[in-house]
Every structure is written in C-alpha cells, then in structure tokens.
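Section 5: illustrative case.
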C-alpha cells in the first residue's frame, strides 16, 4: 500500500515505524529535513506543506491509497486532507487536538452536511486516552477491552477465576443479558469458537462482545469486583479530565475534580 504521512511528529514517527516494513511510506513535512530518528526507517521524504497541491503531486498522491495528517497544527491537517481528496479519492485520517474540531468534523455527528471531500476518520488522541483510563477504572478485572462503532459496541476479555459464578456452567445455562455473545475462548493457549454446550472452566479467557449497555450489565452482574471503585479524584480540568469526570459520574462513581484555575 502507498501511504502518505503529513507531519514528522512523534505520531508521524510512530505510524511510519509501524507501517514501513510492509508498505511504501512517504513523509511530508514543512521542515527542510526529517528529524534524525527517521533516518533508520525505509521511507521517502518530501519537504513542504501537506496542503500544497504541488507538494502533494511531488509526493505522488495520485497513487496513494491512504493519507494521514498528523502535524502539530489542526487546521493544516484538515486542509491537507481536503486537498488530497480533491486530487484523488484517497482514504484520509486526520489528527486533531481540539474538542470542537473533533465534534464538528466527525461524520457520525454531522451526517446532514456530508460531502465527497469529507475526512474519513478523525482521531482525537485525548479521547482515546480518556477511554483507556475509563476502561481500566470501570472494568479492572478485564484482561482487555476494545471499543467499536464509536463506543456503541464493546469486546471484553475475562479470565475465569475459581470463584466465578459461571465456572463449571455450560454457556446455554448462563443467563447473560440480551445483546451479549461469547465469541471466543482461549483455553491452554488454544483459541476456539464455543457453542451452547461448551462448559466454562477455570482460567479460561472468555471473549464477550455486545452493545455497551449490555456488557456494562454483564460486568455488574457476573464480574463484580468486591473492591469496586466508588470514589475517584481527577487532577486537572483539561479535556481529558473533564471527559473522564463525566464518564465516571455516569458510571455512578463519585468524582472530585482538582483544578487550580477556577474559571476553567
């Protein structure tokens, strides 16, 4: 796959380093040369603005299959994605750092204003960080938690303990909430797809998938932690602190928000 990355930032380096072994990567940046850490990557480089048509043409955007804008300037990232879309109907991913831009550009919230030049995926790193912190707090016994379709669907993985109320039961005998399915079980390092007659055993890693509310109910009903968190202190009233405090409150966890700026 031919991938263009606009922005020789920490994010740009992380993406390039992960993808360069299997894909053709070209990095575009406003500076004349790349930071030294990019030197060990098998990538191409074009100096200039990602919003400049001539620069994009020099980077061969016409053959690109993915365009990622992750410079430090939100507006530059947005315009770069729009410009790339005008030249070629390429898949675009845009990183932003401000809540209002994420909300206004997210296709899920602005369907009535969609155009052919819309950015395909908007990533707001602060939101991802908030989700990670919240899932650690709200589902402490889960091995892994993943979110899909903007949080409407979730996937939980639990290790079955000796005292689990579903240990020793067949799946068909477990009264799981509606909209919850067991999609996989890892037993003794072997992953398999179970059926209704499968018996859940100690140390099984059971993967549940379903809607957010249904899995929240599952966690509360079957995997309740005796040391469940009931209060939390959040230091900092920035975007992450504010969103995390909101989610904790919705989860019925009492929150104390500590912020030195009263106006904030």
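Designed sequence:
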């Amino acid at each position: 796959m031919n991938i263009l990355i606009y922005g020789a930032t920490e994010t740009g380096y992380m993406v390039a380093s992960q993808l360069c072994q299997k894909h053709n990567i070209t990095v575009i940046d406003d500076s004349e040369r790349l930071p030294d850490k990019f030197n060990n990557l098998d990538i191409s480089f074009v100096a200039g603005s990602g919003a400049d048509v001539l620069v994009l043409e020099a980077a061969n955007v016409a053959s690109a299959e993915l365009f990622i804008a992750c410079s430090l300037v939100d507006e530059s990232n947005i315009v770069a994605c729009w410009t790339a879309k005008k030249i070629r109907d390429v898949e675009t991913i845009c990183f932003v750092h401000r809540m209002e831009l994420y909300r206004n550009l997210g296709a899920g919230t602005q369907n009535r204003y969609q155009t052919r030049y819309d950015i395909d995926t908007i990533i707001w790193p602060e939101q991802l960080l908030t989700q990670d912190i919240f899932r650690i707090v709200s589902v402490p016994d889960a091995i892994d938690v993943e979110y899909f379709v903007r949080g409407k669907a979730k996937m939980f993985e639990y290790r079955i303990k000796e005292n689990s109320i579903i240990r020793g039961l067949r799946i068909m005998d477990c009264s799981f909430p509606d909209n919850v399915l067991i999609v996989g079980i890892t037993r003794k390092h072997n992953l398999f797809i179970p059926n209704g007659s499968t018996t859940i055993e100690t140390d099984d890693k059971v993967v549940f998938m379903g809607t957010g509310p249904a899995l929240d109910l599952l966690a509360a009903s079957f995997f309740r932690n005796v040391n469940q968190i009931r209060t939390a202190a959040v230091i900092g009233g920035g975007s992450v602190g504010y969103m995390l405090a909101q989610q904790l409150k919705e989860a019925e966890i009492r929150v104390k928000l500590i912020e030195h700026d009263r106006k904030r």
